[in-house]
Amino acid sequence: MAIGDRIAIKGPVGSFTYNGQGLYSHSSGRKGKCLQIGMICGGTGLTPMYQIVQAILADKAQDATKVSLIFGNRTEDDILMRKEIEDAGNGLGPDRFHLWHVLSEETPEDWKYGRGYIDKGMIEKHLFARWSAPGSAEDLSSRIVLLCGPPPMINLCCLPVLTELYGKEFVDNNVFCF
Predict the structure, then answer these.
(1) Which end of the chain has fewer CB atoms surrounding its CB within 10 Å, N or C?
(2) Which residues contact 113 (CB under 8 A, 6 or more apart)?
(3) Per residue, what are the HEC states of 31-85?
């Protein structure tokens, strides 16, 4: 772009609001309180997730919400705001924040995170398993999942896998797409 060029933008658009201390609301009228937030995002889909992590970090003495973030990108150089998200995670600590990067293309030899595309195994291992045994209805009711990324990732991977792992009712009531 050159100085004087014009572009069309939209936003902010969103129907999900994190109100702090695990409280959330949605424009559909759904609202609730969660103890754990699982986030799955790709590329610039990190931005709404980062805002929520920042809100939790800013009130970490009062907000005990735990966060897991699965973050997909093509290459390591594509990881948006890597230092900022890792610093926020360090601020919350490993007992409250879990980050799992996934690279679909170039992967360094010493890469300690995921390779390929986000899949069922990664979601099963990194979304909630760190803090609780899966399966109980009470456990599921205290969790929400936030999704933001390319439509194929959301529609062909995340939503079908979450439905398989947690059931249609959980997805209908506890999963929010940006």
Answers:
(1) N
(2) 100, 101, 102, 103
(3) EEECCEEEEEEEHHHHHHHHHHHHHHHHCCCCCCCEEEEEEEECCHHHCCCHHHH
Write phi, then psi, for 114 (nearest 5 degrees). Answer: -80, 155
State the pLDDT at residue 14: 65
Which residue numbers in the chain have pLDDT < 50? 135-137
Quick one: pLDDT at residue 178? 87
- CA 32, 33, 35, 39 dihedral sign is positive
Task: Provide the whole-model pTM.
Answer: 0.87
CATH 3.90.1720.10 fits 37-177, yes or no: no
Closest CA to 35 of 5, 58, 68, 9: 68
Cα–Cα distance, 36 to 121 (Å, whole number): 19
Q: Which of 107, 124, 116 has the alpha carbon at shortest distance from 153?
A: 116
Residue extents of the structural domains in the chain: 37-177
Position 1 scores a pLDDT of: 77
